[in-house]
Amino acid sequence: MQRFNNLIGGVSTPPVSGQWMPSLDPYKNENWCEIPDSGPADVDKAVAAARQAFESPAWAGLSATARGALLRRMGDLITENAQRLAELEVRDNGKLLNEMLLQLRTIPQWFYYYAGLADKVEGAVLPIDKADQFVYTSWEPLGVVAAITAWNSPLLLLTWKIAPGLAAGNTFVVKPSEFTSTSTLAFAELFEQAGFPPGVVNVVCGTGQRTGAPLVAHPDVAKVAFTGSDGAGKAINQAAAGMLKKVTLELGGKSPNIVFADADLDAALAGVASGIFAAAGQTCIAGSRLLLQRSVHDQFLEKLRNMMQGVRIGDPFDPETQIGPIANRPQYDKVLTCINEAREEGAEVFWGGKALEHPSGGLFVEPTIFTAVDNASVLAQREVFGPVLAVIPFEDEAEAVQIANGSRYGLAAGVWTQDMPRAFRMSKALQAGTVWINTYRAVNFMAPFGGYKDSGLGRENGQEMIKAYLQPKTVWINNSTQPPGNPFVMRLN
Ligand code: NAD
Q1: Is the C-beta atom of 452 inside 6 A of ligand 1?
Q2: 279: domain range?
Q3: CA-derived radius of gyration, the chain
Q4: Is the pTM of this model over 0.90?
Q5: Cα 204–Cα 237–Cα 429 angle in degrees, nearest 5
Q6: What is the domain count for the chain?
């Protein structure tokens, strides 16, 4: 079985413990490779390499323009390696090759965008009221950043952190999900090919507890950039707060997809499917609550039934496949548990509702639709992270807003209507970091992304977010030739 190593200081490095753990191909339900089962000693090595690189003239001495040039070269290399990287992702997480290839072919745009921004972060000369003082600000990198990612889109989620973070001049220790580490290892090797000095990007593989937690707690880590569940995010935030580390958290959601009677129902149907059945529902922005206006409730459900009858479930490598397997065994078990609990709670199964036996033996769950769901129920409140849709009827706009906002999450929301004043009102009323009007599951490097409430802390993407990887410094230069004033009184003006 193929065996992968950590990448530390530019060197392929076996785990200190000499222990590896298997990585599963969820389509075949069999282990296909082994990744390092790292621990604190590996974390120490990786952070030391990142810190050394941060302080080295080879990295710290580069101009912002030169860092931008490296990021552009990295973007080109990702394009050249897109197929290979996408195949590794599919092997590990079972998402469709169609989607992972599209992601890999788009990821370079983030590198080009932040490459351009690298030398456009400017400080200011402050117009203070003393002619003999020269005061200016500059923006400086934070140091070593720990990037910890989830398994559903490993390289996209990493890119949202590492492209702005490197443009800003930081170095990285990446801890990918233990379920999907191989694409990150292959991706990280490209940085050195692009010309980044060794140690600027390091990868340690392992579990959240044995590898992630010591990485977060490491005194030489200045910032933690995390994507994952809100439970782990809160634990990380607590650990980081005790050491005053900077943190950005991209967490889960229970996003409402709201269909009004005046919507283009066919377009809404496609949006609803993309919200919950694309990626077998394993996306943070899953539109897992379908809010249907009562006057079109039955009509829309019939359309949904017709669509589900033709849906193609199977091999994620087959370009005809529309829904692939669940990415790993714990998640598969969780999705089935959630389905059973929803049944026990009294939700009605409209479609699917059980494991799907596939000739590959893979971890398949039937796309599942529950109707007559109460927004207060566990099904409507808990993130399933699987192909499970909760349909909740509503009467009017006010009720739609009340139901939509009746969640501890606030990552995204979709609104389907042809009434633009209503769309505008909804976009203001919804408590969500992203609101899509007549579209769903759209992201872009220019568009800030992140959550309200329990869906996160901070944002990723867009121009301003490079500052999440920088800190301002204020410099005072005294040009006075006068004798100093009273040293026991603060210089306030
Ligand atoms: P998870 O929280 O179990 O794990 C995420 C990562 O954190 C993994 O690398 C894991 O090993 C690590 N980890 C877990 N506990 C840790 C700890 N105490 N200290 C340090 N590291 C720790 O999440 P998952 O199951 O991999 O991913 C699914 C979750 O991610 C869902 O909740 C989903 O909504 C969320 N997600 C959010 C976004 C977003 O951008 N908002 C995107 C994708 C996924």
Answers
A1: no
A2: 256-437
A3: 24
A4: yes
A5: 120
A6: 2
